[in-house]
Amino acid sequence: MNPLEAKLKEKSIAPTAMRVVVLDFLLKQSAALSLTELELGMHRTDRVTLYRTIRTFEEHGLVHRIEDGSGVTKFAMCQTSCNVDGHHDLHIHFYCTQCKETHCLPKTHIPEVSLPSGYLALDTQLIVKGLCGSCNVAIT
Amino acid sequence: MNPLEAKLKEKSIAPTAMRVVVLDFLLKQSAALSLTELELGMHRTDRVTLYRTIRTFEEHGLVHRIEDGSGVTKFAMCQTSCNVDGHHDLHIHFYCTQCKETHCLPKTHIPEVSLPSGYLALDTQLIVKGLCGSCNVAIT
DNA sequence: TAAAACAATGCAATACAATTGCATGCCAGC
DNA sequence: GCTGGCATGCAATTGTATTGCATTGTTTTA
């Protein structure tokens, strides 16, 4: 069977043609993409369907959303540990102010933070802005 | 002299009536506010002027913007260490999924994160989502 | 197999935040 | 008091996110 379809079924997502294409496209990305970037990168797709596809993916733990401060929501593939019950990929995200790309840094985990007593943490997001490896080299 | 005006001048912001009112309002808040919340909380003010006022405040290091993942940008007063050169208040922000309020936790500093070699960090934002003290108590 | 049930898709339309343009108003310095 | 520059307010635009609804496609069931 098609490995893409298998990946969808693994997350209990009905593997329609559209979803397979979107998944395929997402897997080829090195950076997190906004809905618009996704739309532009694919052949004549309806934005709304794309929106709902991504949302389905997100709900089933296949992609995660990243708010990098650029104003638009971006999406990237999850690690395998994510599922319907929640997203468990507590890695940081890096937004390069030069190339405007947002990347997951899966090797860098979000450190524990101590909250005031009584507070309950459910989810943590850490965004670092700066220059990525390529851009930093290019400038200096 | 009016302490509010003084605070504005301290950050090299011309203390107009509008700005004094906005600053006064901001200082009374315990939570970070969105532009719309700000607009509603004040007497018949023009949204655009408010937008530009907040932007001016932000540029001069008087308020900082927070993207808490709710989709809208929120603003809160800065610590004294911020100025035109940048925002240096590296505290975390807490978004309560129950009361939908975003608070600064100035006592909790953002821990250092190790980036891949070649990466340069310029700014870091850490958002924790969960239940704040009040809501956590209310539920249990 | 045919019909019914349900999910997915595509188009239209809406809601709303963010932003810009432009005309007017206000204040400071000459 | 005139002039220049910044501040303000209104109108209008952009762009993202989101919903409604009709249609299509797929799966289940009689």
From TrEMBL, chains A, B:
Claim: Zinc is one of the keywords in the record: yes
Protein's UniProt keywords contain Coiled coil: no
Residues that hold Fe cation according to the record: H87, D89
Cofactor: Mn(2+); Fe(2+); Zn(2+)
Keywords: Iron, Metal-binding, Zinc
Binding site for Zn(2+): C96, C99, C132, C135
Record SUPFAM superfamilies: Winged helix' DNA-binding domain (SSF46785)
Source superkingdom: Bacteria
GO biological process, one term: regulation of secondary metabolite biosynthetic process
Pfam families assigned: FUR
Cofactor note: Binds 1 Mn(2+) or Fe(2+) ion per subunit. Binds 1 zinc ion per subunit.
GO molecular function term, any single one: zinc ion binding
The name this protein goes by in its record: Fur family transcriptional regulator, ferric uptake regulator
Originating species: Pedobacter insulae
